[in-house]
Specification:
By secondary structure, the protein is an alpha+beta fold. It folds into two domains: about 1-85, Zinc finger, CHC2-typedomain (DNA Primase, Chain A, Alpha-Beta Complex); about 90-165, no CATH class. It is about 65% helix and about 5% strand. It has a four-stranded antiparallel sheet with strand order 1-2-3-4, covered by helices on one side. Bound molecules: zinc ion. Zinc ion (ZN) binds near residues 33, 51, 54 and 56.
């Protein structure tokens, strides 16, 4: 929650919210101590601030904590409200993970199906080869023996797989 805020909301956003205008050098008149010369500096790509007058500093969260006199969590809540960046609820996080898993599952099933289709294709090729041997054989060869021994089994397996794939 805090990291999200620190990543999404810059000091420029916060200063804008309080209507504080930084000078060209990125300094503002510090609201936390009597300050005449702008001594609060914004740095770190608008992510951090430090006041050279009173020594306060930190992130957007610290700034709002000091401004509002609230706790870290309260400051975070305020910033989320101002900039409409509510942390995802546990339910929506759970939902997102579930969707991710479902997507993986779908991919896995698609891969499995592609494997099955490849297996079926190979079986059909084998059956065609066996059929050719059986229909053209003129003498007893090892190929013919193999075809006789296996064709029924391969046909049965191909039928089962085809049934599973295409119902
Ligand atoms: Zn100061």
């Amino acid at each position: 929650m805090f990291d999200r805020i620190k990543q999404t909301v810059s000091m420029a956003d916060i200063l804008d919210h309080y209507d504080l205008k930084p000078s060209r050098s990125g300094h503002i008149v510090c609201p936390f101590h009597p300050d005449t010369d702008p001594s609060l500096s914004i740095f770190g790509r608008q992510r951090r601030w430090h006041c050279f007058g009173c020594g306060r500093g930190g992130t957007v969260l610290d700034f709002v904590m000091h401004m509002e006199g609230v706790s870290l969590t309260e400051a975070a809540g305020l910033i989320e409200g101002w900039f409409n960046i509510a942390t995802p609820s546990p339910q929506s996080r759970e939902e997102r993970v579930k969707q991710g898993i479902a997507r993986l599952e779908k991919n896995r099933n698609r891969r499995r199906r592609a494997n099955d289709e490849l297996r079926l294709l190979n079986m059909i090729k084998t059956i065609n080869r066996y059929n050719k041997i059986l229909s053209t054989a003129t003498e007893w060869t090892p190929e013919l023996e193999e075809a006789c021994a296996n064709i029924a089994q391969v046909e049965y397996e191909a039928d089962c797989l085809e049934e599973k794939l295409y119902g």
